[in-house]
Design a protein that fits this description.
The protein is mainly α and 66 residues long.
Length: 66
């Protein structure tokens, strides 16, 4: 996965942290959790606030819909 794969990352985060409210996660922690995902293979320094926000919102959508 790459930083631009917000939906795939969101699903992986939901599986890894099923009881976590995505809106309660700070971007610094979100960044750590994303780069720790087994299938993540992008430059850890390649994120920015916009990408992290997109991931967080997709994750929240998945969290809310389950």
């Amino acid at each position: 996965m790459k930083w631009s794969d917000a939906e795939d990352i969101a699903i992986a985060l939901l599986e890894a942290h099923p009881d976590t409210d995505p809106l309660a996660v700070r971007f610094t922690d979100l960044h750590k959790w994303v780069i720790a995902l087994e299938d993540f293979n992008d430059d850890p320094k390649g994120s920015n606030e916009g990408l992290l926000e997109a991931i967080q919102m997709k994750w929240y959508d998945e969290y809310r819909d389950r």
